[in-house]
């Protein structure tokens, strides 16, 4: 068994690659690319700390997250050996992907495969807990993640999608704990750490992230996002069997009306 598989089994870490594939397939051709081509995104990649992509339900936050991850993966595979990337998709349909503990586990397993330093740090934790015979405490997982980020060289990217889909109730709210983690990681002041979070602008999330964010994107306020919506509506009408028979004037009127009523979604 490979070491990463051993860690994943020990920590019961869910994988997010399935979510990434689904989100990437949901993107209409050439839409959402404006984000990774923007000056704001480039500034985050070069010297930012936290990129917060926010928007209403249905605005396409997860699709934009997948575009960001694809861009960073391309950067890494294109010779960026000094780049590490770990991501986690929160998912209201999957309880395993609503857990703070599982987020920590998933990020650690991802990072452990990308450098010997990260692997050695996680291996120490594995040994501490009886070579995987016992579950580690959440605090130890969080401390291990911080140590990995401190000691690993190069630029490190952490991407978390749909933070609002983590539960926000009980004494140990996964959402609250994750917000505290983001706050702690930024507090480390690591010059090569980049964090991207997507979420709805819910009050508890906004209260924390607003003060930490170096770059913020509100999707429904972006002109390029509105163009994407119009493009998707046009493509839907042009490909619909009955709508294809409409006259061009009627099609344009329908596109204009639907675009105006979309309200960024």
Radius of gyration: 20 Å
Low-confidence stretches: none
Distance between the termini: 45 Å
- The count of β-strands is 5
Shape descriptor reads elongated
Which structural class do the helices and strands define? alpha/beta
Beta-strand content? 5-15%
Major sheet summary line: 5 strands, parallel
Largest sheet: spatial strand order: 2-3-4-1-5
List the helices and strands in order.
HHHHEHEHHHEHEHEHH
The helix content, as a percent range, equals 40-55%
So how many helices? 12
Task: Give me some keywords for this one.
single chain; alpha/beta; 5-stranded parallel β-sheet; 55% helix
Description:
The chain has 265 residues and is an alpha/beta fold. It has 12 helices and 5 strands. A 5-stranded parallel beta sheet has the order 2-3-4-1-5, sandwiched between helices. Strand 3, helix 9 and strand 4 form a beta-alpha-beta unit. Helix 6 (100-112) packs parallel to helix 8 and helix 7 runs antiparallel to helix 8. The longest helix has 17 residues, at 61-77. The protein is elongated, with a radius of gyration of 20 Å.
């Amino acid at each position: 068994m490979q070491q990463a598989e051993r860690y994943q089994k020990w920590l019961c870490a869910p994988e997010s690659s399935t979510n990434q594939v689904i989100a990437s397939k949901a993107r209409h051709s050439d839409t959402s690319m404006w984000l990774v081509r923007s000056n704001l995104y480039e500034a985050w990649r070069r010297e930012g700390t936290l990129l917060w992509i926010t928007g209403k339900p249905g605005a396409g936050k997860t699709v934009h997250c997948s575009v960001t991850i694809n861009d960073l993966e391309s950067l890494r595979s294109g010779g960026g050996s000094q780049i590490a990337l770990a991501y986690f998709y929160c998912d209201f349909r999957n309880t395993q992907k609503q857990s703070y503990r599982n987020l920590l586990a998933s990020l650690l397993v991802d990072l452990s495969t990308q450098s010997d330093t990260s692997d050695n740090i996680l291996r120490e934790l594995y040994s501490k807990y009886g070579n995987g015979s016992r579950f580690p405490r959440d605090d130890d997982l969080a401390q291990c993640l911080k140590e990995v980020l401190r000691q690993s060289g190069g630029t490190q990217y952490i991407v978390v999608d749909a933070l609002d889909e983590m539960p926000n109730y009980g004494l140990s709210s996964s959402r609250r704990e994750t917000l505290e983690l983001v706050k702690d990681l930024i507090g480390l002041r690591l010059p090569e750490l980049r964090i991207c979070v997507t979420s709805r602008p819910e009050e508890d999330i906004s209260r924390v992230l607003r003060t930490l964010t170096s770059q913020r994107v509100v999707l429904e306020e972006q002109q390029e996002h509105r163009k994407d919506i119009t493009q998707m509506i046009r493509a839907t009408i042009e490909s619909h069997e009955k709508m294809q028979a409409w006259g061009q004037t009627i099609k344009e009127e329908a596109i204009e009306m639907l675009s105006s009523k979309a309200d960024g979604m």
